[in-house]
Write a structure and sequence with these properties.
Largest sheet of chain B: 5 strands, mixed
Helix content of chain A: 40-55%
Number of helices of chain B: 2
Shape of chain B: globular
Strand content of chain A: 25-35%
Number of strands of chain A: 7
Largest sheet of chain A: 7 strands, antiparallel
Largest interface: A-B, 37 and 34 residues
Number of strands of chain B: 10
Shape of chain A: globular
Distance between the termini of chain B: 24 Å
Strand content of chain B: 25-35%
Order of helices and strands of chain B: EEEEEHEHEEEE
Structural class of chain A: alpha+beta
Oligomer: heterodimer
Distance between the termini of chain A: 14 Å
Structural class of chain B: alpha+beta
Number of helices of chain A: 6
Order of helices and strands of chain A: HHEEEEHHEHEEH
Chain lengths: ~220, ~160
């Protein structure tokens, strides 16, 4: 394990992602904790129900094992993606099961859409999920932005309903461009509704090139 | 008995008939099959990225299109295939998300570059691409059968395609 003092002001090269120390991963995990806490509050206010979160994780994963790590790569999921670009850049993903997505839509759309075409219902559901995703992911980033005192402008979010493997492929390819490990920092949000407990995984995926800036802004590099 | 091999990210698997080669949940990645139906051998590569620009040492040659194609051909020839009889089929290279107006998010279009480079490499090695199902914005799972040299492509919410 490296101590921050040993590293001094040496800039971390992006191909050194795999050399992140447990200490640095702890700091990133704490950052996820703060971001996700804010995201959970926002989701809770939106849904009017209690939202809890799991203990966050920050780990280095081989890009070759990424897609088999969480569930079957063929499992159908709904994912909302957005990218942030400021002094620090990266990607954010909110991945939930298709049932969770459907449940959220049911909670938020009180009106009966029974007489509409399925296509139109799907479009409304998607734009709703994109908006909820935007709120969740932006709240996450806002907390981090305030903590490190640096603006993190985001792109318009995008949504996909597809196989988990196909979604995580993107990350494997992305981190694969600079090395063979990906940094996965994430936590699970749980919405305590009447029947089920729903939520989803919120992932913060900093660009490898941004890690040194992030860690130095957090005061550990 | 037919064996089933799962070809993971960046992997290359070659085998003799009878065999089923599969790759699950391909997003921007490519499932490339090259086969010789006379020698009855086939191989699948699960390609992640177009080029190994830096010429870096990679643990898995199957990671990049430009290193996967020659390695796959080499492995097939070692297993008894004749280069002049080789044919290829491929699927994948989707763009799962699109974000408007950001150049720096161009990595989202990595699938397109994977397709281009794989095609270029096949052309360079003189291997005819006899069937393909590429691009779009949906993930795919592929299964290749040496019984009939057909690639089955599955997309959620669509009918199964046979290549």
């Amino acid at each position: 394990m490296w101590l921050a003092s040993e590293i001094g002001d040496r800039k971390m090269e992006y191909d050194e992602l795999g050399k992140l120390s447990p200490f640095h991963l702890d700091v990133i995990r704490e950052t996820v904790n703060i971001g996700a806490g804010n995201a959970a509050t926002a989701l809770s206010q939106l849904l009017g129900s209690v939202v809890t979160m799991d203990v966050p994780k920050a780990e280095l994963v081989s890009i070759y094992e990424l897609t088999d790590r969480y569930a079957s790569p063929t499992e159908l999921v709904c994912a909302v993606y957005l990218r942030f670009e400021g002094e620090i850049s990266g990607n954010m993903l909110w991945i939930m099961s298709e049932e969770t997505a459907q449940e959220l839509v049911n909670i938020l759309i009180k009106k009966d859409l029974g007489d509409m075409l399925q296509d139109q219902i799907d479009q409304i559901a998607d734009s709703l999920l994109v908006e909820v995703g935007n709120i969740v992911l932006s709240s996450f980033l806002n907390a981090i932005s305030a903590m490190i005192n640096c603006a993190l402008p985001v792109t318009v979010p995008a949504i996909a309903h597809d196989m988990l493997g196909a979604i995580l492929d993107l990350l494997a390819a992305y981190y694969g461009m600079t090395g063979e490990v990906a940094i996965i920092s994430e936590t699970k949000l749980c919405v305590a509704s009447n029947k089920n407990s729903l939520g989803g995984h919120v992932m913060l995926l900093p660009d490898p090139q941004s890690l040194s800036t992030l860690l130095s802004k957090l005061g550990v590099l | 008995m037919t064996s089933v091999y799962h070809v993971g990210m960046g992997d290359i698997v070659v085998a003799k008939h009878p065999v089923v080669l599969t790759s699950l949940g391909l997003g921007s990645c490519i499932g490339l099959v090259i086969y010789d139906d006379i020698a009855k051998v086939a191989g699948m590569s699960h390609i992640m990225l177009p080029n190994n620009h830096e010429g870096k040492d990679v643990k898995k040659l199957g990671k990049y299109a430009d290193t996967a194609v020659p390695k796959l051909i080499e492995d097939l020839i070692a297993l008894g295939a004749l280069k002049s009889r080789l044919k290829a089929k491929m699927a994948g290279g989707a763009q799962m998300f699109s974000v408007p107006g950001k150049n720096s998010a161009s990595f989202l279009a990595i699938g397109e570059r994977n397709i281009e480079t794989t095609k270029k490499m096949l052309e360079q090695y003189g291997i005819p691409l006899v069937a393909s199902d590429v691009g779009g914005n949906k993930g795919r799972s592929v299964e290749f059968y040496t019984d009939n040299w057909i690639m089955i492509v599955k997309v959620i919410g669509s009918e199964v395609k046979k290549l």
